[in-house]
Amino acid sequence: MSPSAETRPPSEARARLLGTATKIFYSEGIHSVGIDRITAEAQVTRATLYRHFSGKEDLILAYLDQADRGIRAQVAAAVSGTPSAAGQVRAVARSIVDGIRSPGFRGCAFLNAVAEYPDPEHPVHRAVLAHRQWFLDTVTGLLARVGEGRAPVDAAGRHLVMLRDGAMAAGCLFDPELISETFLHGVEGVLRDVSEKSSA
Questions:
Q1: Which residue ranges does the Swiss-Prot or TrEMBL entry mark as DNA-binding (predicted)?
Q2: In the 8-state DSSP scheme, what is residue 81?
Q3: Which of 63, 80, 117, 172 has the fewest beta carbons closer than 10 A?
């Protein structure tokens, strides 16, 4: 059954609120932005916001959930287009570089968010850690396939995540082309190390 005209506007309002919050949170930070700014730019009332989100924290978590889904889809697309394990790692790395080179790049949404929410018990902090654990598990799993199960890859997975974190932080401060080249070079080093250990 198609949604009625009565149910469509609220979902459009929610999408508008989330889209507005995403743009502002990512470009300007989270704490510096109030509910009034978001509702004004989304052209909705406070009552509409509270109909869709219990408060600002709920909106922040929706923003991070949307970012998480986007990155998971990006990684899945990169992996699905490449048959070899090493090629999949390279494809994931290239997808990261595409983000660094994109207009308006302001670093990692999750690293930016956790810098504003240092309390490990806070729901925003926990959402960031959950996303990062998924990413670490994903790249470690890909590296395990590169090593064909013959090499320990936990350290290599952590190394790749740290390379990614450094590239995301530096990519909005320095020349993104240089940062991208350095990151990809580092990923090749991780792949070479895993391959050498698996054949030793």
A1: 34-53
A2: T
A3: 80
Residues 48 and 82 in one domain: no
pLDDT at residue 192, rounded to an integer: 95
Contacts 24+ apart (CB under 8 A), 182-185: 183/93, 183/96, 183/97, 183/100, 184/90, 184/93, 184/94, 184/97
**Helix locations, 81-153, DSSP H:** 85-100, 109-116, 123-146
Are 52 and 20 in contact by the 8 Å Cβ rule? The answer is no
Count of domains observed in the chain: 2
For the residues 123-135, what does the mean pLDDT come to? 98
Alpha carbon 41 to its chain's center:
24
For residues 126 and 114, what is the distance between their CA atoms, to the nearest angstrom?
9
- Report which of 82, 37, 36, 35 is spatially closest to residue 54, judged by C-alpha positions: 35
pLDDT band at 200 (very low <50, low <70, confident <90, very high): low
Which two three-digit tokens encode residue 182? Answer: 């350095």
**At which of 31, 53, 75 does a domain end?**
53
Cβ atoms of 24 and 37 within 8 Å: the answer is: yes
Per-residue b/e over 134-160, b at no fewer than 16 CB within 10 Å?
ebbebbbebbbebbeeebebeebbebb
Domain housing 165: 56-199
Q: What share of the chain is helix, strand, coil (3-state, %, to 5)?
A: 75, 0, 25
